[in-house]
Amino acid sequence: MLTHLCFILQIELLQKWRHPQEWLHPLAFFLMLIVLFPLTLTTDPHFLSLFFPGYLWTSALLASLLSIQTVFSSEMEEGHIEQLFFSEVPLPIILIIKLVIHWLITQLPLIMLTPLLGWLFHLSTTSIAVLCISLLLGTPILTFTSSAGVALTIGLKQQGVLLSLLILPLLIPILLFGINIVKQSEQGISILGSCAALAGIALLAVTLLPFAMTAALRFSLDE
């Protein structure tokens, strides 16, 4: 079992290495949105520091949607999905490994850039730290929820449009939740409860959504 898990981990990392556009394009898109923020609005430091957390969260959400559309594309093209159902490792566990690696490659770099970006946009040290915490807790929810939408719409025409209509209403509350954590910190309100709630939602997403994705992928293959 452990040998199979290590092999799956190596395969996923190798696929990401061979297809760098899957994570470079979302990163470039994210940075482009951040650069456009002061250029299209204002360079006033107070305005930038006030609205930057929400803008950063929105940019991370859009970058996540951009990167997640191809999460199952290579497996579908090569017919690899069917083989995964017969693997000794349960498919939900394989999906967890796959999506955790996807999050590490596509979302973690955005979080690592957040301190530098926060400093450039005049955020306080406390606000930068809280913003990083909210992203660490919230972006896994974006990844796993978006992947569930991809599994539901895989093989359909105009998948991108359908994915946005299906997933955005579910992700906007997470977006508002993450922004609100930063606002609470700036107002001197304890964020422990909000962070615990966001961590609980992330735990549920990581543990339960892979089973929903497995059912959706099986249904898509039966069609």
Explain this structure:
- This protein is an all-alpha fold and 223 residues long.
- The chain has one domain.
- Helices cover 85% and strands 0% of the residues.
- The protein has helices at residues 2-18, 21-40, 45-68, 73-78, 80-84, 91-106, 108-120, 125-153, 159-186, 192-222.
- Helix 3 runs parallel beside helix 8, helix 3 (45-68) runs antiparallel to helix 9 (159-186) and helix 8 runs antiparallel to helix 9.
Tell me the span between the first and last alpha carbons: 31 Å
Largest sheet: none
Q: Quickly count the helices.
A: 10
Number of domains: 1
Query: Shape from CA axes?
Result: elongated
Radius of gyration: 18 Å
Strand content: under 5%
Low-confidence stretches: none
Mean pLDDT over all positions: 81
By DSSP, the count of extended strands is 0
| SSE pattern, N- to C-terminal | HHHHHHHHHH
Structural class: mainly alpha
Helix content: over 70%
